[in-house]
């Protein structure tokens, strides 16, 4: 068994890094090439499906080099295909030299694309909508809504628009899945992002949320009408579900 494990590890190392790890003696290269292509293409396909925008930003050579580096160097710890995206993000975070000079926004873009995937496959369900008095009843939020803050406007990045410096203000995105199981996003103002953080971290009524915001932000006097309009819009989008029973 020890000899078999040594042989198995040697073959696996060659399949991961054929340029630097020799194949096993006695194996016909034509047959080994089938496995070299099959395994690499499977990994590349999984990552490409998870990060389609990222792939479109790069030339075929740049993309192949990045995937090859991940395939060769990253010690993934999960056998589940739907978790490969998280492994790839961990690899990008650990290897900024591979992408940061040309794509400084890449890690944030990866997180945004992963978040869309995570919400798409999330098995949680939403309770029925329960409209009520926003001000006196506790606000109920969707389990399929996530607030994300980025230095770069990742939702706008595409092959013909790739920022080299972050703008002065961060980008706040509400990424959510609605009742039609469509993953969508909404750009939030900093105040709306703070409002979401307040109601998602604490079971509060509208009156309590307004009081907390006015206390957190010096000089802010959030109007009730503005607050209610924001929640009404979120209710239409299935970001909040109304009020708690």
Provide keyphrases for this structure.
245 residues, mainly alpha, DNA polymerase, domain 1, Outer Surface Protein A, domain 3, 2 domains, 3-stranded antiparallel β-sheet, two-stranded antiparallel ribbon, 9 helices
Give a verbal description of the structure.
The structure is a single chain. With 245 residues, the protein is mainly alpha-helical. It folds into 2 domains: 1-103, DNA polymerase, domain 1; 126-245, Outer Surface Protein A, domain 3 (Alpha-Beta Complex), CATH 3.90.930. It has 9 helices and 5 strands. The protein has helices at residues 2-16, 29-50, 52-57, 60-73, 84-94, 106-121, 190-201, 206-216, 224-237, and strands at 139-141, 145-150, 171-177, 183-188, 240-243. The strands form 2 sheets. The protein has a 3-stranded antiparallel sheet. A hairpin with a 5-residue loop joins strand 3 and strand 4. Helix 5 packs antiparallel against helix 6 (106-121) and helix 7 (190-201) packs across helix 8 (206-216). The termini are far apart.
How much of the polypeptide forms β-strand, as a percent range?
5-15%
The N- and C-terminal alpha carbons lie at a distance of 61 Å
Looking at the structure, the CATH topology of the largest domain is Outer Surface Protein A, domain 3
At the first level of CATH, the class of the largest domain is: Alpha Beta
Mean pLDDT: 93
Rg of Cα set: 24 Å
> What is the helix tally?
9
Helix content: 40-55%
- Structural class per helix/strand content? mainly alpha
pLDDT below 50 for ≥5 consecutive residues: which ranges? Answer: none
Q: Could you give a short account of the major beta sheet? A: 3 strands, antiparallel
Number of domains: 2
Structural shape: elongated
